Amino acid sequence: MPIKKAGLKAMRQDKKRKKRNQKVKNNIKELRTSFRKAIEAKDKKKAEEISKKLIKAYDKASQHKYIKKNTAARKKSRLMKKLNQLTKKG
Description:
The protein is mostly helical. It has a single domain, classed as Methane Monooxygenase Hydroxylase, Chain G, domain 1 (Up-down Bundle), CATH 1.20.58. It is built from three helices and no strands. The longest helix is centred in the first third of the chain and has 36 residues, at 5-40. It is elongated.
């Protein structure tokens, strides 16, 4: 435990930030799993709908520095690659 007031305040801020970060990352994780399930089920319409939400979530997360910009770009690229493979087959 910190002794100084500033240290205590920093701990409180860290808790709040951690909670916020986890909320955003959990939302992305849920969207990613539902996208993967839609791809496995070969449900093109549902996969496209979820991909739009997921891309928006990645953009917002990188904009607010929850994830790095290049990480978001890489994940979006892989997401679109999977979606395009599904549309080519179907």
